[in-house]
Amino acid sequence: MSTFSSMHSPSYSHSFICSSSINEKKNQRFVFSSFPRFSVPANAKVFLQCQANSHQNAVLMQDGAVATKVSPVEKETPIEKLKSELLSVTSSNEWDEKAGFDINENESTVSITVVGASGDLAKKKIFPALFALYYEGCLPKHFTVYGYARSKMTDAELRNMVSKTLTCRIDKRENCGEKMEEFLKRCFYHSGQYDSEENFAQLDKKLKEHEGGKVSNRLFYLSIPPNIFIDAVKCASSSASSGNGWTRVIVEKPFGRDSDSSAALTKALKQYLTEDQIFRIDHYLGKELVENLSVLRFSNLIFEPLWSRQYIRNVQLIFSEDFGTEGRGGYFDHYGIIRDIMQNHLLQILALFAMETPVSLDAEDIRNEKVKVLRSMRPLQLEDVVIGQYKSHSKGGVTYPAYTDDKTVPKDSLTPTFAAAALFIDNARWDGVPFLMKAGKALHNKRAEIRVQFRHVPGNLYNRNFGTDLDQATNELVIRVQPDEAIYLKINNKVPGLGMRLDCSNLNLHYAARYRN
């Protein structure tokens, strides 16, 4: 039985399952068997890029998850580029050949349909991201947002649900409330089955009413389980696609359960869509501090020389949640914490962290460097993995249920809700440096962060002369992704006074304080 003290939960006890219960294919080239291929066609575009040096609220990825930024066309601002892309009637390939072609903004509209609108992801992530685009002026003049799901709901009920998660926390101006009202007025709802062409035809009729005869560009955002992707895409393609503009589909992770199912899903999607219509994304790469990772490293000379095995002792990638499945275990039980968090969110961050300097910020160049990291990664060994599942626990008169107490989870489920793994990259920069991934549900707090621990000072002068224990307190760079985004560097410092007392202090960049308006 093993445990990680930094992940210990005061509210739950964990029983750890023998790591040999993990299925491991022999000679597996990549780290996890569920690891999808990471490749981005050269014509990939950043769908949600807006103001220069501003925030990407979502990142377009094709055939994999890659965080990119594309340089704007000369003499064209990023907002103009975004609107041109949204309003263009051409496909992505045509756009490359006709970079200057667009149509009058008054003659075109964009209809965004969130398929699975009543789900947790749509409520917490997708609708707030769409509002952020509107708030920053990154959506065209004419657009409509439709929610589509099986749940019965009115337009007013959808707006009430969405309004609870909208925020202007990044750049709160006086007109925030006004902008919210404007956005909500453009949100509508249609109830239907995901495999019903008739229901999608009814949606098509409603979309046409809002489009008012303009050139229709349609985007379908699939916030549904992968086992119903194909049904929804088939119905949308046959009954609700645009007749005179473009039709595109955004596919959220997980994109299949493993490499084989991912390839099968791609093949099935291409029965109804071309490759340049499919946008596969990992929404976690839109996190502010994840986007800032390459900026921190490649635009600050003080970090790049230290970014190697000579100075770094280990790198920890931590994702913890302070809540369990809470009635949503049916979906989670099919995947587990490794497939749900580690092989996508954390593996993507690892690749961004460890990659060499790309030739440019184009999607293809960043993808190439990330692939090199992944190809250099040593196959994961079972002895380097610990998994566990949270159990019930009573504290302060409150009983916290076990994972298997969730009514949507089988009583005999062995699905891990916690996992820790040590990964190694066999290249000149990172040879011998462990990358420690930790992810779990029902832990003591909610956080996602990268912790870079540097090596001990050789021949520690102050430990030798003053008997301090600071040789045990190494320098550490912490990049807190959530909550309360921050970057801080732990350094050893002298406490003011006549005596030689040393202390560990933080050089802190707290985003809420630094970028508060």
Automatic annotation (TrEMBL):
Q: Which domain of life is it from?
A: Eukaryota
Top-level class of the enzyme under EC nomenclature? oxidoreductase
One annotated GO molecular function: NADP binding
The Glucose-6-phosphate dehydrogenase NAD-binding domain extends over 114-292
Q: Which InterPro entries match?
A: G6P_DH, G6P_DH_AS, G6P_DH_C, G6P_DH_NAD-bd, NAD(P)-bd_dom_sf
Where does this protein chiefly localize?
plastid
Gene Ontology CC annotations of this record: chloroplast stroma
Coiled-coil blocks? none
One GO biological process term = pentose-phosphate shunt, oxidative branch
Concerning SUPFAM superfamilies, the annotation shows: Glyceraldehyde-3-phosphate dehydrogenase-like, C-terminal domain, NAD(P)-binding Rossmann-fold domains
Q: Which reaction does it catalyse?
A: D-glucose 6-phosphate + NADP(+) = 6-phospho-D-glucono-1,5-lactone + NADPH + H(+)
Key word Oxidoreductase present: yes
Q: Does the keyword Manganese apply?
A: no
Pathway annotation from the record: Carbohydrate degradation; pentose phosphate pathway; D-ribulose 5-phosphate from D-glucose 6-phosphate (oxidative stage): step 1/3
Looking at the record, the residues that make up the Glucose-6-phosphate dehydrogenase C-terminal domain are 295-516
UniProt keyword annotations, A-Z: Carbohydrate metabolism, Glucose metabolism, NADP, Oxidoreductase
Annotated family: Belongs to the glucose-6-phosphate dehydrogenase family.
For this protein, the record's HAMAP family field holds: G6PD
Family matches, as NCBIfam families:
zwf
| UniProt function note | Catalyzes the rate-limiting step of the oxidative pentose-phosphate pathway, which represents a route for the dissimilation of carbohydrates besides glycolysis. The main function of this enzyme is to provide reducing power (NADPH) and pentose phosphates for fatty acid and nucleic acid synthesis which are involved in membrane synthesis and cell division.
- Name the record gives this protein: Glucose-6-phosphate 1-dehydrogenase
